[in-house]
Design brief:
- This protein is mostly helical.
- It has 12 helices and 2 strands; from the N terminus they run ααααββαααααααα.
- It has one domain.
- Helix content is 71%, strand content 2%.
- A hairpin with a 3-residue loop joins β1 and β2.
- The longest helix is centred in the last third of the chain and has 30 residues.
C-alpha cells in the first residue's frame, strides 16, 4: 500500500501540472479573474487584480477522479471526499459570483451551507461508525458521548474550512500549509490502529494535487485557489481528522489556520469595543506582517515553516496516543 500512496501523490501532482495550463487558458477566456478589494488587505495587492481564480476546482476534480481510479472510495474515505465535493460546490459558486460581479456569496449564507454539510457529515460519521470520543496524546481514548461528539465535529469542520479560507490571502500560503497538514494526516492514517490505508491514499492525493497547484501559485501567482479550494480542502482536512480519531491534534497540525482565525476573532471585537483601536495592524495575521514591511515571500516562507513544525508535532502527539493504548 505504501507504493500506491507514493504513486497517488506523484500522479496527482502530474495531473495538476499537465492540466493546469489548459485550465488557465479556459479561465482567462471566460474572464474568471479575481477582483481584489482594497479593504481586504494592505496596499500593493492591486497588481493581482484579474489573476485567474477558482484553481481549487481543478484540484477537487483531480482528487475525486484519481480516488476512483485507485479504488479508494469506501466508507472510511467517502465522508472526506464528499465533504470536498459538497463544500467545493459552495466555494465554486462564490468564485463565479466574485469573478462576474466582484462580490461573492454573503458570509452568513456561506456559514449556513457549511453548517448543513458539517451537520450532515457529523451525523453520518456518528451513526455509521458509532464515534463517541477521541484519542488524546498520553491519555489515550477519551469518551464524550454522541451529542458532544457531533457538536465538536461540526465546530471542527466549519472552523477548519473557514481557517484555510482566511489563510488564503498570499501567494502559496494556504496551499503550502495544506500540503504539510495532509501529509501529517497521511502518516497518521497509515500508522493508525487499525490502519486506514485508503484514507492515507486520499490524503496523498490531496497533498500531491496541492503541490502541483503550488507550481503555479507561488509568488507571483498565475492562479488563485479561490473559495472552491480553500473552503473545501479545509472541510476535508477536518473530516479526515475525525475519521482518524485525531481531531484533538487538528489545531496543532493546522496551527497556521488557528492563528490566522484567532487573529481575526480577537481583532474584530476589540476594534468595536475600543472604537477603532487595533491589536494587529491588519488581519488575518499574514497581513499584519506585510504591514510591518515583510515581503510577501518571507511571510509565506515563515508560515510554511510553522506549518511544517505543526505537522511534525501533530504526528508526534499521535504516536504518543498510540502508545497510550498499547
Amino acid at each position: 500500500m505504501t507504493v500506491a500512496v507514493i504513486q497517488a501523490l506523484v500522479l496527482a501532482f502530474a495531473f495538476v501540472v499537465i492540466l493546469m495550463p489548459t485550465y488557465l487558458r479556459l479561465l482567462r477566456a471566460i474572464g474568471f479573474g479575481k477582483h481584489i478589494r482594497t479593504e481586504d488587505g494592505p496596499g500593493g495587492h492591486e497588481a493581482k487584480e484579474g489573476t485567474p481564480t477558482m484553481g481549487g476546482l481543478l484540484l477537487i476534480i483531480v482528487v475525486l477522479l484519481l480516488a476512483t481510479v485507485f479504488g479508494a472510495w469506501e466508507p472510511s474515505t467517502a465522508p472526506t471526499l464528499l465533504a470536498l465535493l459538497g463544500v467545493g460546490i459552495l466555494g465554486a459558486a462564490d468564485d463565479v459570483l466574485n469573478a462576474l460581479t466582484g462580490v461573492g456569496i454573503r458570509g452568513r449564507h456561506k456559514i449556513i451551507w457549511q453548517l448543513v454539510v458539517a451537520v450532515a457529515a457529523a451525523l453520518y460519521l456518528q451513526n455509521h461508525f458509532g464515534f463517541t470520543g477521541f484519542r488524546a496524546p498520553i491519555v489515550g481514548d477519551v469518551f464524550v458521548g454522541p451529542i458532544p461528539w457531533i457538536a465538536i465535529a461540526v465546530i471542527a469542520i466549519v472552523g477548519a474550512s473557514n481557517g484555510v479560507n482566511l489563510t488564503d490571502g498570499l501567494d502559496g500560503l494556504a496551499g503550502g500549509t495544506l500540503v504539510f497538514a495532509f501529509l501529517a494526516f497521511m502518516f497518521i492514517a497509515l500508522l493508525n490502529v487499525p490502519t486506514q490505508s485508503n484514507l492515507g491514499l486520499v490524503c496523498a492525493l490531496a497533498a500531491g494535487a496541492m503541490i502541483g497547484f503550488l507550481w503555479f501559485n507561488v509568488h507571483p501567482a498565475s492562479i488563485f485557489m479561490g473559495d472552491a479550494g480553500s473552503l473545501s480542502f479545509g472541510a476535508a482536512l477536518a473530516v479526515t481528522a475525525l475519521m482518524t480519531g485525531q481531531v484533538l491534534i487538528l489545531p496543532v497540525i493546522g496551527i497556521v489556520f488557528v492563528i490566522e482565525t484567532g487573529s481575526v476573532m480577537l481583532q474584530i471585537p476589540y476594534y468595536k469595543l475600543t472604537h477603532g483601536k487595533r491589536i494587529f495592524l491588519f488581519t488575518p495575521l499574514h497581513h499584519h506582517f506585510e504591514m510591518l514591511g515583510w515581503p510577501e515571500t518571507k511571510v509565506t516562507g515563515r508560515f510554511w515553516i510553522i506549518g511544517a513544525l505543526g505537522g511534525l508535532l501533530g504526528v508526534t502527539f499521535f504516536l504518543a496516543s498510540i502508545r497510550a493504548i498499547a
